[in-house]
Inverse folding.
């Protein structure tokens, strides 16, 4: 006869104890796995964050973006250990404006920093640039920048403990600046086990440029050697102001007839190779552990450039991809997700929230960018990027998707529409064609929505009475393992 009565107490106790030890073993085993050890390590890591901004750097001229010329061996080396965001676009073609957008995750109309305005020395205290936020997270903050573009008395000084208004990659002292200023800064922070945020900004790619030797000779073809000798003979070219450089450069070329547009590309490629060598000197000089384990490295550019002579420049081309498409390379500690190429649409506004997400900080509400590793968040932008060109006599804005580009000029009330799949050079304006009116109206609505969202955010930034502090006394928790596991 089968016994359907209750089991003996001893049997129940054995089952309970077996379950307990099974759970305990599972927990202990999980802490012994490499993933758990990585998580524990990342939660207590000391992070060095190096943000490199190279003005006028076109991704189309970098090897990691498919360029056949050997312009960027060091950048390419690091890109293989990084996440390369293939479709990143700036929100402004003004250096000051775009760089402030990068640091605040706000469009120019909100942070109000531009090249042609006196406000470039001031910014609302309700706007928190990246360096201030990281300072609240116990980061040491330092900037080594081009003093002509970002002087010490300007708004970019705000939030940096150390601010060096000098070129980190300059013709008269690459090795000196890197070895005597930048590397000791990293070594000192590394030895004290602190967190460091360092911004490096260079404007040496602003065209026209004449790279120094031996980089000048790498790309110049035989047909242009005599022309280059004339350019090299310009007295004190490296020390001239930007306006003086342009005048001297184009005046010299005006006296020469045996050159073509390819010379401008050759000079530009040589300058990239020169800057790449300086960047390689910097990265190879960092302490080994920082390079291989603890370095968060981001390389980007405020805007691109047009490689054309003055008589070929046209204001209708200001928001074309040659100016708005910028590189974005993110190297995470321990080479996490190294070699990944992401082709989703991204903006410079996305850098700040992405960095905060990676560092485990709470997100900010009053910004316009989105963390690049949150797929659900990316869908909110519906796969487009916004850009603008705002100067005294120019008011243009654009919406770019993977397939289309729409540009609106507010002052002249003119429009441009390009189908980028069949016209990547943006040479055939479709805005006036009847069959594209529905497409154009959709983009007009998108621009209007963008303006409405900006106006709503502007009210909270400038009219809200209470001044809130977004982050306070937060340490770095490290979110890299979680990001990796989720992708």
């Amino acid at each position: 006869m089968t016994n359907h009565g209750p089991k003996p107490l001893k049997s129940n106790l054995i089952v309970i104890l077996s379950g307990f030890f099974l759970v305990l073993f599972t927990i202990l085993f999980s802490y012994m796995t490499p993933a758990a050890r990585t998580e524990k390590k990342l939660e207590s890591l000391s992070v060095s964050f190096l943000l490199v901004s190279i003005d006028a750097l076109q991704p189309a001229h970098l090897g990691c973006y498919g360029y056949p010329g050997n312009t960027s061996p060091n950048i390419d080396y690091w890109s293989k250990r990084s996440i390369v965001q293939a479709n990143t676009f700036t929100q402004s073609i003004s250096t000051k404006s775009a760089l402030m957008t990068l640091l605040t995750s706000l469009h120019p109309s909100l942070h109000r920093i531009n090249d042609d305005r006196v406000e470039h020395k001031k910014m609302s205290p309700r706007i928190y640039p990246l360096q201030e936020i990281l300072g609240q997270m116990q980061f040491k903050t330092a900037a080594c920048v081009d003093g002509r573009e970002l002087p010490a008395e300007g708004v970019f000084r705000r939030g940096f403990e150390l601010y060096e208004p000098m070129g980190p990659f300059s013709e008269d002292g690459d090795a000196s600046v890197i070895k005597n200023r930048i590397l000791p800064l990293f070594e000192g922070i590394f030895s004290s086990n602190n967190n460091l945020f360092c911004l490096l900004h260079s404007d040496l790619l602003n065209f026209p440029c004449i790279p120094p030797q031996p980089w000048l000779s790498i790309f110049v073809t035989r047909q242009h050697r005599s022309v280059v000798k004339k350019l090299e003979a310009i007295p004190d070219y490296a020390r001239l102001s930007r306006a003086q450089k342009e005048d001297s450069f184009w005046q010299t070329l005006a006296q020469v007839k045996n050159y073509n547009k390819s010379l401008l590309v050759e000079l530009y490629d040589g300058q990239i190779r020169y800057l790449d060598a300086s960047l390689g000197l910097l990265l190879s000089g960092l302490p080994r552990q920082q390079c291989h384990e603890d370095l968060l490295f981001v390389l980007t550019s405020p805007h691109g450039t047009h490689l054309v002579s003055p008589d070929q420049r046209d204001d209708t081309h200001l928001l074309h991809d040659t100016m708005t498409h910028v590189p974005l390379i993110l190297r995470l500690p321990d080479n996490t997700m190294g070699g990944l190429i992401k082709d989703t649409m991204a903006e410079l506004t996305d850098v700040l929230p992405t960095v905060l997400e990676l560092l485990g900080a709470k997100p900010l509400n009053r910004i316009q960018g989105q963390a690049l590793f949150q797929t659900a968040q990316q869908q909110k932008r519906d796969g487009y990027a916004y850009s603008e060109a705002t100067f005294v006599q120019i008011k243009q804005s654009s919406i770019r998707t993977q397939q289309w580009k729409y540009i609106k000029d507010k002052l002249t009330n003119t429009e441009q529409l390009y189908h980028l799949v069949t016209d990547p050079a943006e040479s055939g304006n479709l805005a006036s064609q009847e069959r594209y009116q529905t497409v154009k109206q959709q983009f007009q609505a998108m621009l209007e929505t963008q303006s409405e969202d900006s106006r709503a955010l502007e009210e909270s930034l400038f009219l809200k009475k209470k001044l809130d502090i977004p982050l306070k006394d937060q340490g770095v928790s490290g979110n890299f393992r979680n990001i990796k596991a989720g992708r």
Observations:
- DSSP finds 17 helices and 13 strands in the chain.
- The chain has a mean pLDDT of 82.
- The domain at 46-463 is CATH 3.40.720.10 (Alkaline Phosphatase, subunit A).
- The CA atoms of residues 386 and 450 lie 8 Å apart.
